[in-house]
Specification:
alpha+beta; five-stranded mixed β-sheet; Dipeptide-binding Protein, domain 3; 30% helix; 17 helices
């Protein structure tokens, strides 16, 4: 080890010691100092790697520590963050072309902010873009969104800060590049064995390494399942963040989250992963003057993934019966005061591509019973249906443990299904296990409840295309967890992407939503609204209502007297 490396390690140790002392104080006494912010949320990420599996808790943290090339902002407009100019066909930074196989492709040129620098002083360069692409297209790496990387045929380096993606097709989202770049100078060694990369990445083995981050903050301490501590990144090229320390505490039980907020142990509950609507409204009624409240509707889709490899659930009549047996209007009215509308497809009415022309599964227990009889589940014993082989119609129902809202929803689903002879067995897991293992490896055998967040007019490529089903062979890449295979859905996704005319895309979107609601690879529940409970002194937090968390603009957050 060189002298310089030794000093760096000593510095990291001293920082860690100071952080540990600070955390001990912050977790023991109320966070009164306005230069420190303690945020409470309900999930801990299973990994901090930007591209391995998808989990909102991870995005919430990483959005404070990194920046994508482009992002949809709070006004739902695509804009540059890491790049300097948004490439368009009109400004010449995106150029149509023809690929070797005769298809229409596009070359999109990005320039990285000249001052963008990893936390260890290494510049963020085109080499990082090339490396990220190389890792992302290797299915052994375990990346969730491998298809997007595969579409890039090559990355041409123009100079240290400028590069061009040569893409195999021209889509209406040709200039949207929302993923994070990886630090090639650090992650190249763990990637030497691609099959082991997901276990060796520094984002998990050395998550406080400053060279992993280049945003307003860097991760300086991690206690798995408990907290993550952020401190300002001295190499950040944007406005200086106001808080000298941001502690993200994980309190998986939402009742305990409320108690911690009232006691002053935390300042602020993350709207993205905090209270449910009912709890927030109740909390506001009891504490109307103590906090600022905001209820933000958005593109957040609560649903049940269906394990289509399960022979019982592979029968579409059973899936339809499951929906007809539910009174979702009553569920959202009683639990959420009607603030969260029932979902009939995967597209939110707030989205510009929404259509009302989809099959509607209203509450109809008689129709549910008829469908189950037709599917062979007609023998009722002790209130539960059986088939001719004597098998019981029993379905496991999973979600993230400790989430009061989801646990209440589970109880309603279980009760309503029991009335038509369907037994639902609740089997919950901690979020980091549920998302990190169970969903990623498709080991659930029934129904799995969670939420997808999307950007405006986001094509469900990774969640619905046939080639996006995670398997051991593809390194558990992709997010088609139900195992849905539909040739027509694959065609529609491709056709929508390639159609540049927004008006011409509308009928394609309508057909996609109709097919989704007909095939039911997923059972729609409702669209969520996020309740934000702010301390009176916090300013600058602007919820987006879509995929991107508020922490993407954390440098704008300020405290006021």
């Amino acid at each position: 080890m060189t002298y310089g490396h030794l000093l760096n390690r000593i510095s990291q140790f001293m920082t860690g010691l100071a952080v540990a002392i600070g955390i001990a104080m912050a977790l023991t006494y109320p966070a009164a100092a306005k230069d420190r912010l303690v945020i409470g949320m309900t999930q801990f990420p299973s990994t901090l790697h930007p591209h391995i599996n998808s989990m909102l808790a991870k995005s919430y943290i990483l959005n404070a520590t990194m920046r994508p090339l482009t992002v949809y902002d709070q006004d739902w407009e695509l804009t540059c963050l890491l790049c300097t100019t948004l490439p368009t066909i009109e400004n010449g930074l995106a150029v149509r072309g023809t690929t070797d196989n005769g298809e229409e492709g596009v070359a999109v040129t990005y320039s990285i902010h000249p001052d963008a620098t990893w936390g260890d002083g290494t510049p963020v360069t085109s080499a990082d873009a090339v490396f990220t692409w190389q890792v992302g297209r290797d299915e052994r790496s375990g990346f969730a969104g491998i298809e997007g990387f595969r579409r890039v045929l090559s990355v041409e380096v123009i100079d240290e800060k400028t590069f061009t993606y040569h893409v195999d097709r021209l889509t209406y989202q040709y200039n949207a590049a929302g993923g994070f770049l990886l630090p090639a100078h650090l992650e190249a060694t763990p990637f030497e064995d691609p099959a082991e990369y997901r276990h060796r990445t520094l984002y998990d083995t050395d998550p406080t390494n400053p060279g992993l981050y280049f945003g307003p903050y860097k991760v300086v301490a991690v206690e798995s399942g408990s907290y993550v501590v952020l401190m300002p990144n001295p190499t950040w090229y944007g406005p200086k963040p106001a808080f000298v320390e941001v502690i993200i505490r994980v309190i998986e039980n939402t009742a305990a989250l409320e108690a911690n907020l009232l006691s002053g142990e935390i300042d602020y509950v993350a709207g993205e992963l905090g209270f449910n609507i009912e709890q927030a409204m109740s909390f506001e009624r009891r504490n109307p003057e103590d906090f600022t409240y905001l209820y933000k509707p958005g593109l957040i889709y609560e649903h049940l993934d269906v394990q289509l490899d399960n022979p019982t659930l592979a029968d579409n009549r059973v899936r339809q019966a499951l929906l007809y047996a539910l009174d979702r209007e009553q569920l959202t009215s009683q639990l959420f005061g009607g603030h969260q509308p029932v979902a009939h497809s995967n597209v939110n009415p707030l989205d510009r591509v929404f259509t009302v022309e989809v099959p509607i599964y209203g509450h109809d227990p008689d129709k549910a019973a008829a469908l189950l009889d037709e599917a062979g589940w007609s023998d009722m014993r002790d209130g539960v249906r059986h088939n001719a082989a004597g098998e019981k119609l029993s379905i496991s129902l999973m979600t993230t443990a400790g989430n009061k809202s989801r646990e209440l929803v589970q109880q309603v689903l279980q009760s309503q299904w029991s009335k038509v002879g369907i037994e639902a067995v609740i089997r919950n897991e901690p979020a980091r296990v549920f998302f990190g293992e169970t969903m990623t490896k498709r080991t659930y055998d029934g129904l799995a409840m969670y939420a997808w967040l999307s950007a405006p007019e986001a094509v469900p490529l990774s969640t619905l295309k046939s080639d996006q089903i995670p398997t051991e062979e593809n390194g558990w890449s992709g997010q088609n967890f139900p195992g849905y295979r539909s040739e027509r859905m694959d065609q529609l996704i491709d056709m929508i992407e390639r159609e540049l005319d927004p008006l011409a895309r509308m009928p394609l979107w309508a057909e996609l939503q109709t097919l989704y609601a007909t095939d039911l690879p997923v059972l729609p529940l409702f669209f969520r609204a996020e309740p934000y409970v702010f301390p009176k002194w916090l300013r600058g937090v602007r919820p987006t209502g879509h995929l991107v968390t508020t922490t993407m603009w954390i440098e704008e957050w300020r405290s006021v007297d």
